[in-house]
Structure formats: structure tokens, C-alpha cells
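Hey, quick one: can you model this chain's 3D structure?
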Amino acid sequence: MDPFELEPDANLYCLTTGRNVSDDIRDDLLQCVEKGTEWCSEFTSGCFSDPGRFVKPIRRSKVKNFASAAIKTTVKKYLKLIELQCTRDLFGRLLCIGTEHNLELDKVFAYPLTAVPLSLAHVDGSINKTDKAKLLHKIEDMIDSTNPDSTIDITIVDAMFLLHTLQNLPTTYGEIARLLMTKLCDFSKRVDRVFDTYATPSLKDTEHDRRSTDDSTYTLTGPGQKRPKDWQKALRSPTCKTALFRFLLDEWTQHADVDVLTEHNIYLGIEENCYCLRVDDNTIICEEVPALSECLHEEADTRMIFHLCSILSSQQTIAVRIADTDVFILLLYHVSHQQNCTSEVCMDVGLSTNNTRRYISISSLEYDLEQSVIDALPGLHAFSGSDYTSSFMNKGKIRALQLIMKEKSFADAFAALGNSAELSASSATELERFTCTLYGCPKLNTINDVRYALFQQKYAPKRNDTPLEKIQWINPSSMPPCQSVLRTSCVVRIMLLTCGKTPTCQSP
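Sure thing. Here's the predicted structure for all 508 residues.
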């Protein structure tokens, strides 16, 4: 690339990677002559003032350069372990005080006793995570994974998923763009490639911070620019992905292979707009698609559903290329609720490199599962843990799925989540009873009673004269959150589900 064609700004960019460097590296590089002159003058004046200074060692001056940006540092997480032990000790001391002062412990357990509910979050405030894929595999086992009956007519693909599946990646961005175009045209005649949008502030900021390790600004100026050596690390940077998305649109519009693109329509959902690339009279045409533009979906997950709902009545075979439990749940829910659905919908998951590539028929699952269970899945998925919501410690998703399939009242309560922005009294009561059953106490109806019962079951002393026998090293994460925390958590999940159940262009 020609660096003199760039618009000047305050950043300093590395020509080999296209990324900017930190302020301290920029200052050292731009002021190296002035600093060197200053250090030389100090040495000269020191030699004149002290004759013995000339033979003394010169103090090493640390100057940062582009190589300094690649230095990795390791931070040991002993502090988090110590903090966790201190939090559990504090929990035990509170119970110790309650026992010594003859307080009724069932009343004590009605309140949160730690800074954060350790059944839902870690001591540093980050949410608990669970293996979401187990829910997908459990439901998939209910049917046989077979290839679609007919040829795939339309493919909807997550842009980042496709990038992560590429093997033997070329070294320049221009070659990557040509490889991606070939891959897209191999799927079907029409391909919808949907990109994430990185807006700030966002509900997804915490998840982005957890995944991202690089907050540098990237600039892509031409097809000859080389990609970073650590490609997977670069893809964790929102600025790098945004620059790559815009580059691909410009590169394909100007330099796409006409022979490869002929007879194909490539739809690109980038930020709030959607563009269609096609060949007309041996010329590449890029035009905006009004029906799919002005889309405020931040996540590619829900934007893929938005594209799908616009073509479900086309009587074609549609494949969604992604391996994500969130998209699987949304697909199953919206396909079952589409009144004029005449298309066969399947989910293309897995990788060919490790022989896990397969199709999951969403249309077959729609008939094999009870409608009440399908309606409950989005609420159950959010309640038991997703990218935005925390999971219950050591509970997972399989047991929760079994409960809603066994008892219809639980399924109805989860199906009602997200239909309105408020939590009704009946839904709150039923969800609390579900949580009691999830923790192995189906005969109890209030979560505070479950907390006390689990405490007694695990930490009750063998003799009445030693009530503090098992208080030491108590683990509060093994008990559910108190009632007030549980209901607040349910309200947060309702706010998120209200958006997921209405995949219109205006959904946030």
C-alpha cells in the first residue's frame, strides 16, 4: 500500500500489519531523534564536568518500537483464587454470627449474603458460563441428521463462522477476498452473508471484552496488504473485523472474478444496509436491497433470522451455515411460527476437515417436537445461560430441557417469557418452582426455602452441641440465588427475549 495516500490522523500505523500502535510506542518512534540528541548532550556535558564519566557505563534507555507491540505478558490469577476463598470465608462467618446470636437461619437465607450471587456469577462480577452446545446435541439426537431432499437453493452464512473455517489461508487480503468469493459461490445460487455490527455502548460489550485481546485500530488500504500472522487473534478485534468487512465489499465490487460470480446473487448484510452483488452484461453490479436494509440488528445471529423470514414463503430449500446453539433455537422457534412457510429449512453445521459436517433438518424437528416445547426453548435457553445471561453453577441445560418436556406448566411459563416487557405474577411463581425442581427440591415452592434446605442437607452438624462443625470452607455457589435476585435476573432475560422473538428490521 502507499502510506502517503492515507488521510493523516493522530495514529501511527505499522505497514506490515495495518494496525496502529499505542501512544507510548508512537511517541518513542516519532521523537527518537530529539530524544537521542538530548541523551547525547547529557553525555557530552557530563564528560566535561566529570573527567571520569567517559569510561563509566552508559545507562540503557528503553525505546519502544513496532516490535514492542508484539511482546506478550503473562498474568497469574492467584488473586482471583484468594478472593474466592475470602468470599466463601466471609459467607461462613455470616452464618457463624447468625448461629451464635440465635438468629433464624431461614430468615437469613432470604437475603443475598455475598457481594454477587455466586450461583450466577464469579467473584469478579463476570457471569457463569455453560456448554450451550449440549442443548443442540440433545435435541439433534431426537431425529436423524440427513441431507436435504433437494439441492440447496439459498444459503445464509455467518461471515465470522466462514472465516474461522478457512484452511491454508492466503497471505494477502486480496487473495483472501478471492478465496471467500469462490467459497460462497460453491454453496448455492443465492448466498446471504451476514456480518456482525460492533456498536458501543452495547449489551455485548462484556462478551466482546472477554473474547477480544486487541483494541488497536486496523486500516486496510489495498488487496496487496498482508494479513497479520496471528489471524485468529486479529479476528478477535472488532476494529479489524469491521475494516475487513468494508474491504471485502469494495474489493468484490471492483475486482471480483466475473466468471465465478456469474449466475450467482451474493447478498451482504453490512452494518445497517444490505447489498446485492450480481453480474449483468459481463459487469459486476452492486445495488442496495431496500427490503433488507435499515436493519438495526447488532448480532449476525438475529440478522440471519431476519433474512430467513423474508424468504420462507419462496418454496425453496434453505440452508443456514453456522454451528451455534443460539441460531439453532431461533431457527426452530421462527420456522414453527411462520404461517406461510413453504420452504424446507436445514442447518448446515460442523466441519469437513474433521468429518463432522452434517445437516440438521429444522423442518423435521418442527413436527417431531411438541409446539409447547418449541415455544419454551428461547426462554429456557436465556434462563439457563447464553452469551448475555449467566447460567446456574453446575446445572447445565440438559436437566432443564428434561423438566420442560416432562411438565407442561414449566414449558408454558418459559413460552410466556418475552411476550411482554413485564414479568407476570403467575410466571414468576412457576419459574421459581422450576428453579426449586432444578436444584432437586420439587416439593418446595419458594427458592429461599430451598437455600435453607440445601444448607441443612450439606452443612448440618451431627451433634446439636456443635452447631459450627461444618461451617468452615462453605461453598455458597452450590445454592441457588435468593428470591429477590432470581426475580431481578428473570426481568433482565425478558428484556433480551423481547428483541429475539420479533426479528424485524427495527429490533435492537
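One thing worth noting: The first helix runs from residue 23 to 30.
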